[in-house]
Amino acid sequence: MNLAFIPSPSTGVLHLGPIPLRGYAFCIIIGVFVAVWLGNKRWVARGGKPGTVADIAVWAVPFGLVGGRLYHVITDYQLYFGEGRDWVDAFKIWEGGLGIWGAIALGAVGAWIGCRRRGIPLPAWADALAPGIALAQACGRWGNWFNQELYGRATDLPWAVEITDGPNRVAGTYHPTFLYESLWCIGVALLVIWADRRFTLGHGRAFALYVAAYCVGRGWIEYMRVDEAHHILGLRLNVWTSIVVFVLAVVYLVLSAKLRPGREEVVEPEAVAVAGAKDGDTPAADGKAKDADAKGAVEAGAAADADAEPKDAEAEAADGEAEAAAAAEGKAEDKAEAPGAKKL
User: Fold this and answer.
1) Which of 109, 187, 140, 105 is nearest to 34 (CA)?
2) Bridge partners (DSSP) listed for residue 22
3) Which tens digit of pLDDT belongs to each residue from 283-300?
4) Measured in whole angstroms, how far is the alpha carbon of residue 223 from the centre of its chain?
5) How far is the C-alpha of 144 from the C-alpha of 45, rounded, in Å?
6) Is 61:109 a contact under the CB 8 Å cutoff?
């Protein structure tokens, strides 16, 4: 008998009048807000504009939800299209069932559309959002706790999760794989943040590191689960998916580091243009001040010239009087000499 365990909620939904409030949905919503909040801080730190991450998330999140549901329904089609099943249940996303692989794949398509509309490189946006996505997964995994699903093998460890009787489950204590993955995702987020600061990751390498690190944890956690799943060569389908995606992420890391080392200098041209316009305000003001000074100097010179004009007139008048006096003296001398000439 277990002396300690993690109890499961008695219900995964609360009713506010006719409105159902589902724990699974709340965990997803909280995860989205955490991802956008952290992604925005990282985007601004890299030179982007505040709010850009949220604007692109408007495209990425709906695409991601559809992609995650499609992956789950396709890989577990027997739950919805098998004998005695109702295919309408495939649309009941609130009951759980989102595949992270499909969510990332189709979410990237939505993000690409949003980035293209803003003239932003998708790899740079993905790098900024990478640790936030990991934290969003950490939050979202607690939705499995509310739904009492995706647990591991039976165990009597003190941190085992208690599962009650219900559809497709047997009461007992099991490995809380939702908790393992939640903690692992927090570790992945911290790893990406540290590596990004230490090695200045760019051109999608921070996102690739997140993918590779998540796949490592998902592989061993998936191996512990006991829920129904397809097997290939003795391994669960999601284990094989983790292996393939891990290899692709590592290959991208290596090739990207060789072909495009360093980090993008400009992640959002519009933000650079706005910053340049603000920086240009001071030189313009200085130019206006210089123009004003020059204009003042010209006006001062004109005033000085105006003052000098009366002085020049006085000087000319004085010169005229002197010339008139000299002319008068000359005439007087001529008159004095004239009589003398007649006497001779």
Assistant:
1) 140
2) 13
3) 444 444 445 454 554 455
4) 34
5) 34
6) no
Say how many C-beta atoms besides its own lie within 10 A of residue 81's C-beta.
13
Neighbouring C-beta atoms of residue 116, cutoff 10 Å: 13
Note whether 212 and 249 are within 8 A (CB): yes
Q: CA-CA distance, 144 to 8, in Å (whole number)?
A: 10
Q: Between vectors from CA 328 to CA 322 and to CA 329, what angle results, nearest 5°?
A: 95
Query: What 3-state class would DSSP assign to 231?
Result: strand
pTM of the model: 0.77
Neighbouring-strand partners of residue 161: 6, 174
43: confidence class by pLDDT, cuts 50, 70, 90: very high
User: What DSSP state is assigned to residue 94?
Assistant: G
Name the DSSP letter for residue 132: H
pLDDT in tens, 98-151: 889 999 999 999 999 999 999 999 999 999 999 999 999 999 999 999 999 889
Length reported for the chain? 344
Enter the tokens of residue 334: 């001529």
Distance CA 88, CA 101 (A): 23
Q: Which 8-state DSSP code applies to residue 240?
A: H
Phi and psi torsions of 78, nearest 5°: -65, -20
